[in-house]
Write a structure and sequence with these properties.
heterodimer, A: 224 residues, mainly alpha, 0% strand, globular, disordered N terminus, disordered C terminus, B: 209 residues, alpha+beta, 6-stranded mixed β-sheet, two-stranded antiparallel sheet, 7 helices, elongated
């Protein structure tokens, strides 16, 4: 095996190699049980860790694979749709309870979150500002609403977790949603100063929707 | 773009099916909701675990519940509890009054302690008198054997977790058990009237006179 090429250049090239150890660590039964012993850790440590591990692993994919996937994921739309829906489903309180009891739910949850992390990594840059905004516009308000509900309810939404734990998680979700929104807007402001294309996919001159350039090298007869 | 659209639609369909499976067709969002729904669809027979308490010596719960033709409203408690169990206790006091007003109506109450280490018969007797429970309508038991207790909690999906202060948090509710000893309906512990009305509706109408 020669050194693989990275489609997404990374300042620290060793960083993606942490993806596998991170994933293995999160899946180790003692770590998994510790992370799932609290509702807050379940979402903020385990969910977040799995997303991160998936993202790191995705950047190790060979360029050709990434390009192949890109054909099914123009503007990152499929990836972002998939991860937004996965995040929505994973925040259903029953999922947290069931994951502790039913190995099928637990396995699907772990797999879906790793894949979502990978999808986010592969889709984020191709998405461009508009699709990113659409994704965040769905996911962040959802997190905010879920967080607010978790805080406001004096009934436990998870039988396996304590009420104070639920309130902590609710508060944290609201703060995370706000922080991500602010961070995205800030980087948007910084990015706008540089000559970055708004939709950085395919050929810069190609109109939206004609990103066949990855496959065909010969220009097709341009019938407008 | 066609492939991206197809994949997006496929993922949306997959998520829809997954969410539908996890929420019983978008009816429930919590495990507690699912538990209550499951019981309505499939009544759950009480397991044959040994119970003990004041004036109830080592009998099987299933037999006790099916013993005298009355519908039983069950709650799970521990006597050291000062939060939700107190609410359950005063709720059961109200139910007891309502039942005592018409003793022929065929409903009784049972409080099951999930803390047998502390709640022996003597402690339960003391707790019962504290709550002015009338043994004709309201009994207190525990399941002394830990494995059996867990079997009961699993069957009725009662989840008990340490509250970090030496006590427990648990999904407190009113469990209606029919004359055959099957858990048929679960109500919020605030829904006293609904639980009693439901229990009364299970009692067969006796021929007048």
């Amino acid at each position: 095996m020669k050194a693989p090429h990275f489609a997404i250049p990374s300042r620290a090239t060793w960083l993606p190699y942490l993806g596998l150890p991170l994933l293995v660590a999160l899946l180790l039964p003692p770590v998994r049980h510790a992370a799932e012993s609290s509702m807050t850790a379940h979402m903020l440590v385990q969910y977040a860790g799995l997303l991160l591990a998936g993202g790191l692993l995705a950047s190790l994919l060979p360029v050709r694979w990434q390009q192949g996937l890109q054909r099914w994921n123009e503007l990152g739309i499929a990836g972002l749709v998939g991860s937004a829906l996965t995040l929505a489903v994973s925040m259903v309180p029953r999922v947290l309870d069931l994951a502790l009891l039913d190995w099928r739910v637990e396995s699907l949850k772990l797999l879906a979150l790793v894949l979502s992390g990978a999808a986010l990594r592969l889709s984020w840059r191709p998405a461009g500002i508009v699709v990113q905004a659409f994704f965040l516009g769905n996911v962040l308000p959802m997190m905010g609403v879920v967080g607010t509900l978790y805080q406001d309810w004096d009934t436990r939404v998870c039988n396996a977790y304590r009420l104070d734990d639920q309130h902590d998680l609710g508060l944290a979700l609201v703060w995370i949603a706000l922080s991500v929104a602010i961070a995205w807007l800030l980087q948007l402001g910084l990015q706008r100063r540089e000559p970055a294309p708004i939709l950085p996919t395919g050929a810069p001159d190609a109109p939206a929707g004609t990103t066949e350039t990855l496959r065909s090298t010969t220009p097709s007869a341009g019938k407008a | 773009m066609l492939r991206t659209t197809l994949l997006s639609l496929g993922l949306a369909l997959l998520s829809y099916l997954g969410a539908s499976w996890l929420t019983e067709g978008f009816q429930v969002w919590t495990a507690e909701g699912a538990r209550r729904l499951t019981v309505i669809d499939r009544p759950m027979a009480a397991p044959a675990v040994n119970i003990a308490g004041p004036d109830v010596t080592r009998r099987r719960l299933s037999d006790w519940l099916a013993s005298d033709g009355r519908v039983t409203i069950v709650d799970f408690i521990y006597t050291r509890c000062h939060s939700v169990c107190s609410a359950l206790g005063s709720g059961f006091q109200q139910l007891q009054q309502a039942i005592a007003a018409n003793p022929s109506e065929g409903v009784r109450l049972l409080s099951i302690s999930f803390d047998p280490a502390h709640d022996d018969a003597a402690r339960l007797r003391q707790y019962a008198s504290q709550l002015r429970a009338d043994p004709r309508q309201w009994r207190f038991v525990t399941v002394p054997d830990h494995a059996e207790l867990q079997r009961l909690l699993d069957a009725f999906q009662v989840v008990v977790i340490p509250d970090g202060l030496g006590g427990y948090e648990h999904n407190a509710a009113l469990l209606v058990v029919d004359q055959r000893g099957r858990l048929v309906r679960i109500f919020d512990y605030t829904e006293l009237d609904a639980a009693l009305a439901y229990a009364l509706a299970l009692v067969p109408r006796r021929a007048a006179g």
